[in-house]
């Protein structure tokens, strides 16, 4: 019968199409992941996933042998770390604070700074007006998302006596918050009821194992290459639906709002003075993000968040617009055009505003509200423990003579060393997380 023949033809066509597509996908994956140098040109993570929206992009970047790999020794709670100790999270320069008020700067590479520019700790700690009673500790870590910045802040700010907190973020750090992997595995929050749930900790110490068990979730690399390539001439509305940009943006807004609310609530409930710093990625080829424009979701969301909650803040675009040296076309004075990070000149402008915020703060109280023991408290307790231990005290005296120090100077160094190496702030946090995760 004619309809049976037609049905047979349709089924054969469908089967043939599925077979061809399946074989093509298999062959394409073999070219992508087979390791042949002949197909290296295909191994571009951006051709298959969006770096602003998908961890799959960064996982492919790793699998394709990207220049920046995961850390050799991943941090169990943060993914990777900066100038602080892995267990205690004591900053490497914490001993320099002395009796001064610690100013704690948190953020990503914009806070950490590029090697070729003078950074905030150098600018402020050499400023006699600032450094007489304050000392800045830079906790900035390159590549951090808002989630990692928040986790590091909440784990450390109460460990310092009378701190002033500078919480900074670069606007696209918010794009990193939903990701479980960037240049390496990272912690991340998910929405839970009206709050947040921390996922991805402890970090897998073997990046290759994590990727093997949490690899890219791409079903068809051929389809993704079309979707993210120049051959895609689909209407914007179709692309938005297929790529999910609107839904992802809505999720990022809600997620980052809750993370930042958590930060502000913790700082305020602890009675800590603080200011937010918002950095902007500014390059001439990204006109929608440029100085004088804020018609993008990141700027709008952050402006609304900070204004609605009366959060004191420094807005980097405003500083450029207010600067007498700004002509409208001399961005290179403010930003390193090859990577979008601030120059020494722009860091100095931002540091000046940081200094104003710190010096304008009222004299701090004697201690934080319901805070844990500070690093300084633990160091003083450790010094007394050493002093009471006859053998240990004698060893410290011998080291003091060998290094040309007084006993008290060496005692302080030994006590701080023990705090840095033995205080397990990270372990305590991981145990709390495990207990909360257990039903």
Radius of gyration: 26 Å
- Specify the CATH class of the largest domain: Alpha Beta
Shape: globular
By helix and strand content, what is the structural category? alpha/beta
Helix fraction?
40-55%
* Quantity of strands, as a count: 9
| Strand portion | 5-15%
Low-confidence stretches: none
Strand order of the largest sheet: 2-1-3-6-7
Number of helices: 17
Tell me which oligomeric state these chains represent. Answer: single chain
- CATH topology type of the largest domain: Rossmann fold
CATH architecture of the largest domain: 3-Layer(aba) Sandwich
How many separate domains? 3
What's the story with the biggest beta sheet?
Answer: 5 strands, parallel
CATH superfamily caption of the largest domain = SGNH hydrolase
| Helix and strand element order | HHEHHHEHEEEHHHHEHEHEEHHHHH
What would the average pLDDT be, to the nearest integer? 91
Question: How is this fold's topology laid out?
Answer:
Blueprint: H1 2-33, H2 55-63, E1 101-106, H3 109-112, H4 120-125, H5 128-131, E2 134-138, H6 146-156, E3 164-170, E4 188-192, E5 195-199, H7 207-213, H8 221-227, H9 236-243, H10 245-269, E6 273-279, H11 297-308, E7 313-315, H12 316-322, E8 335-336, E9 341-342, H13 344-360, H14 375-388, H15 390-402, H16 407-422, H17 425-437
Parallel strand pairs: 1-2, 1-3, 3-6, 6-7
Antiparallel strand pairs: 4-5, 8-9
Helix pairs in contact: 6-10, 14-16, 15-16
